[in-house]
From TrEMBL:
Protein name in the entry: Corrinoid protein
Family annotation (InterPro entries): Cbl-bd_cap, Cobalamin-bd, Cobalamin-bd_sf, Met_Synthase/Corrinoid, Meth_synthase_dom
Classification via SUPFAM superfamilies: Cobalamin (vitamin B12)-binding domain, Methionine synthase domain
UniProt keyword Zinc present: no
Domain B12-binding N-terminal: 1-88
Pfam families (alphabetical): B12-binding (PF02310), B12-binding_2 (PF02607)
Positions of the B12-binding domain: 88-210
Keywords of this entry: Cobalt, Metal-binding
Amino acid sequence: MANLQDLYNAILNGKLEQAVAVTQEAINEGISPTEIINQYMVKAMEEIGARFEAGKAFVPNLLLAARAMKGSLELLKPLMRDKNTATIGKVVIGTVKGDLHDIGKNLVASMFEGCGFEVINLGVDVSSTKFIEAAKEHHADIICMSALLTTTMMYMEKVVQAVEAEGLRDQVKIMVGGAPVNNAFAQKIGADAYTSNANQAVQVAKQLLA
Ligand code: B1M
């Protein structure tokens, strides 16, 4: 039987092969991706972040943990897709300029895909120009921005202003998220919504497009 505490430890200690092996075991046993991700994988990332903050872990530890997390997520991603759902909207998503954190953003992207949205994932370090070009090219319904740093979250406001300057604001909803972001900040910069996690992002997106 899969020991999901081993998955938590494998991610925390940056052990990719072990993380992937336990994840596969859990999948074979029919444990839900949401439980695996939220109860074990995200918690391990929170713990490595706390250790980093306390000076008990360093950037290489973060990188190894991220690599293990990504390896496991790759196995879980296909299970989050529901092939029978019709496309209900187009989302352009990216981590804002200056920010290289992409695990949470990719989780949000996978959840959108799984719930029937078409997703254009622009990756990390995304400028306002890239967001706007992609929104225009794909006739996006939503621009979704992620930021994990208190310094880079400020760039979200630039994107909102650029979207307004481009005359696109009436055509596209703007959603923001990421650990340092909150509702008050979202309102202050003129975004349509803030959500704290991937599940909520999908629910709120559906409401915005209804
Ligand atoms: Co970085 N890092 N990091 N890091 N890192 C944090 C964010 C930090 C909080 C760690 C700490 O000090 N405790 C801290 C930020 C402090 C701050 O600004 N307040 C920090 C720092 C300081 C840094 C560097 C500056 C370190 C350095 O070089 N000295 C540097 C910056 C690089 C850069 O971006 N320019 C850096 C680098 C890195 C790595 C590259 C090593 C690596 C990232 C690898 C990668 O992503 N490919 C990394 C990691 C792994 C982390 C932590 C440990 C984990 C992040 C993560 O993946 N969490 C993180 C500590 C932490 O978060 N506790 C930390 C798991 C993920 C599932 O959660 O991304 O929050 P999260 O996503 C959630 C929600 O936020 C939400 O949904 C997801 C879950 O459902 N969400 C959205 C996210 N985006 C959304 C968008 C939406 C909606 C919801 O749109 C609507």
